[in-house]
Amino acid sequence: MRTCTDSVYESRTRPCLLYQIKRCSGPCTGEIDAEGYARLVDEAKDFLSGRSQAVKAQLATAMQSASEDLDFERAAVYRDRLSALSHVQSHQGINPQTVEEADVFAIHHDAGMACIQVFFFRTGQNWGNRAYFPKADPSLAPGEILGAFIGQFYDDKPTPRMILISDEFEDRRLLEEALSVRMDRKTSISVPQRGEKRELVEQVLNNAREAHGRNLAETASQARLLQGLAETFNLAHPPRRIEVYDNSHIMGTNAVGGMIVAGPEGFVKNQYRKFNIKSTDITPGDDFGMMREVMQRRFSRLLKEHGDAGPSLPDSAEDPDAVSQPGIAGLARPGADRWRQGTDERGADDPRGTWHRRQDHRHRRRQGHGPGSRPRTVLCRRQAGLHAAAARPGALFHPAPQGRGPPVRHRFAPGATEEGHGDQSA
Fold this sequence. Notes:
There is one protein chain. Strand 2 (113-122) and strand 3 form a beta hairpin. By secondary structure, the chain is α/β, with parallel strands linked by helices. It is flat. It is built from 12 helices and 12 strands.
């Protein structure tokens, strides 16, 4: 089955790599006709609907027919598909005989934390499982946590005809009736006491117990790491949220920035973000400019949504290139006051804000023309003069010829050297 989007499908002129490794039948370029592809779609529907035996029978018949016609290559294809189908079915794990459609919930509560394991069964097959770790009052009974969790779990999901649970809770009948009305068919919630259903619940409960133990071990290890980090950097308390930023580009094009998030429970992948660099005045390789745009966009949006006391303000914002970007390292603990608009030293309105003034100051120091700086190269002195000249009202600015690289050969305005900046001879 093809996995590409419609736009990619319509623009293909030759089969992609998936066709070459036999993961796609290549309908985009006519490697298979519409009728043959429709048969593949029907087979996939039958298999996902639980009619896998019918699919195996059809493949066996096709393989036999191809063999009788002496088309052994096609027969080998059907043979491999039959083998793959048998392999998938043999690794289903729990395959109950009396449960056609059900979700099985089991909760394990210990050390103030709860783990809820959910197994999904459709057409008599195990369709997978998932562990959840809801945050709840440690004083609540396991049944109360489980009942509240199930009510929220099916808020945006269709319910099966049967729900099996490990612990009884007070409003089970009420929740059962509500889910039945929502789906317009009968949905039962029960705590099995014997037979195969009880065995299913016990197996799910064992999975919940093991997942709970793994999570406790990982949480304890993460807590030790964060405590060590707090001691190393003399923090008042272990950081609750750490954001790590980096940016990249391809030969100066397609510039992007990335943010990953870590917390007491490890990496928080659902809060990762990617930023497409939008600024057109950032030169290729200007990591500082790209990072500044990423930080501005990230924190301006955060404060706009949550205010100055936003719940997601990080305890630390780290940049792996901070050694070469001292200005970015200064943003390690960005307070909300850095982002508010204020006034400059003369009391005049400053539409760019305190943070921008600080960043401009750091940037000017890096370029070799701030208080206390020592320009190390001729390039730094010339860039300093360029910035000073461009900043003067009415100053003449002559851009460098196209394709000549950095503006090291500019002729600065006459006033640029009056303050000790620039190199008039350049």
